[in-house]
Write a structure and sequence with these properties.
- It contains four helices and three strands, in the order H-E-H-E-H-E-H.
- With about 130 residues, it is α/β, with parallel strands linked by helices.
- It has one domain.
- Helix 3 links the parallel strand 2 and strand 3.
- Helix 2 runs parallel beside helix 3.
- The protein is elongated.
- The protein starts with a helix and ends in a 14-residue tail after the last helix.
Length: about 130
């Protein structure tokens, strides 16, 4: 983690794409950003989380009433602390609030649907009752 800390300490922008659930690496990044903030330096941190954060584990067997809207980002804040990847995301959010205005932090949740263009249809699981749009 020393290498991560040292590299973040000299970086204006940090992208964390290695793993979404490795708390030690996130803490090393945050510590590096905290060091920079103490020096009056600004940092942008973009963390790649996982779309399973939004999952209800239906596995295609039932349709959920829950709908998340990209234009309502506050809905993410209502997810339970027990949601997949959530503990890491919460650590980042807390650090982001602590380190304002010297740090801007964003959590990117990439899409989960692949193959539609290549195969002409999206993959399906179970009874195909879940909805993702």
């Amino acid at each position: 983690m020393d290498i991560l800390y040292a590299e973040v300490a000299v970086s204006d922008i940090v992208f964390h794409t290695a793993t979404v659930d490795h708390l030690l690496s996130v803490q090393a990044i945050i510590d590096g950003i905290r060091y920079r903030a103490a020096q009056g330096l600004k940092t942008i941190y973009i963390h790649n989380s996982g779309a399973t954060l939004l999952s209800d584990s239906a596995q295609g067997d039932y349709k959920s009433d829950g709908i998340l809207d990209d234009e309502q980002p506050g809905q993410i804040d209502t997810l339970p602390d027990s949601a997949s990847h959530r503990s890491i995301d919460l650590a980042i959010l807390q650090a982001g609030q602590e380190l304002v205005p010297n740090a801007k932090m964003a959590i990117m949740i990439p899409p989960l649907i692949y193959g539609s263009l290549k195969h002409g249809y999206p993959g399906q699981m179970g009874k195909d009752l879940t909805v993702w749009n």
